[in-house]
Write a structure and sequence with these properties.
Structural class: alpha/beta
Strand content: 25-35%
Largest sheet: 8 strands, parallel, barrel
Shape: globular
Number of domains: 1
Mean pLDDT: 91
Low-confidence stretches: none
Helix content: 25-40%
Distance between the termini: 19 Å
CATH topology: TIM Barrel
CATH class: Alpha Beta
Number of strands: 12
Strand order of the largest sheet: 1-4-5-6-7-10-11-12
CATH superfamily: Aldolase class I
Number of helices: 10
Length: about 260
């Protein structure tokens, strides 16, 4: 049986890790490389770094940070934010990242998913999406995709966009609920499950984790293959080992770290 993955998320602004609620009121948490080392040593299965203002500020991702992380950890990691072309993807991969996450770029130019998948393999291309709940009947799933840190609505239905991205070559989907992000009240399980049941690639639950039970629910009710955690470990309230121990006791397969 495949093990479920725990992925710490490090949102980065100007070279520092930050955390907010629904992309607002961010506070400084520390150095991304130092935190990456700590989480790698603590049992993380992967890491993900998002330069959360790069796309809005029309600037590239910090390649120096990517290179420093690659030198410092021995687990896979993904990066996103500030990716605007196939050349940007190549720079990130050459700098040491195993996966490239595209969000705003993919909405603007869906063909970049096919190009990236062809150039680097589907396993390298992650579609990140930031859906928000809506009562508008033109969105069958009940969720509309947003971009640029929830600054812009796209008119795309979340489930239909996930299916299209997989058809184009995306090898993984990260579902980050705007409504749940940073709240620590639990993942958006309905949305996660809708997408997990609609596509044939791994789906990662993101946004809202506050307790190990929330993580377990993402795997059972949400049918996710991996879960992104941030605030609950950044504060020191929970460790990755404690989360995995809880999951193991609940009968959920994880890579043991204790």
């Amino acid at each position: 049986m495949l093990t479920k993955r725990i992925i710490p998320c490090l949102d980065v602004i100007r070279g520092r890790v930050t955390k907010g609620v629904r992309f607002q009121h961010n506070v400084d948490l520390g150095d991304p490389v130092e935190m990456a080392i700590g989480y790698s040593n603590g049992g993380a299965d992967e890491l993900v770094f998002y330069d959360i203002t790069a796309s809005a500020e029309h600037r590239p991702i910090d390649i120096g940070m990517v290179e420093a992380v690659a030198r410092s950890v021995r687990i896979p990691f993904a990066v996103g934010g500030g990716i605007s072309s196939l050349a940007d993807m190549e720079r990130v991969v050459l700098a040491g990242a195993e996966k490239v996450s595209v969000n705003s770029l993919a909405v603007r130019d869906p063909g970049i998913i096919r190009e990236g998948s062809k150039a680097f393999g589907a396993q390298c291309i992650v579609l990140g999406m930031d859906p928000v709940g809506t009562d508008d009947p033109s969105f069958p799933s009940g969720y509309e995709v947003t971009v640029r840190g929830f600054r812009e609505r796209t008119g795309l239905d979340a489930v239909e966009w996930a299916k299209r991205a997989v058809d184009l070559g995306a090898g993984e989907i990260v579902v980050n609920s705007v409504d749940a992000d940073g709240t620590r009240n639990g993942f958006e399980l309905r949305l996660t499950r809708l997408i997990a049941e609609a596509v044939g690639v791994p789906v990662v639950a993101s946004g809202g984790a506050g307790t190990p039970r929330h993580v377990a629910d993402a795997f059972t009710e949400g049918r996710a293959d991996a879960a992104i955690v941030a605030g609950m470990i950044h504060t020191g309230e929970w460790t990755i080992g404690e989360i995995k121990s809880f999951l193991s006791d609940a009968g959920i397969p994880v890579r043991r770290t204790w």
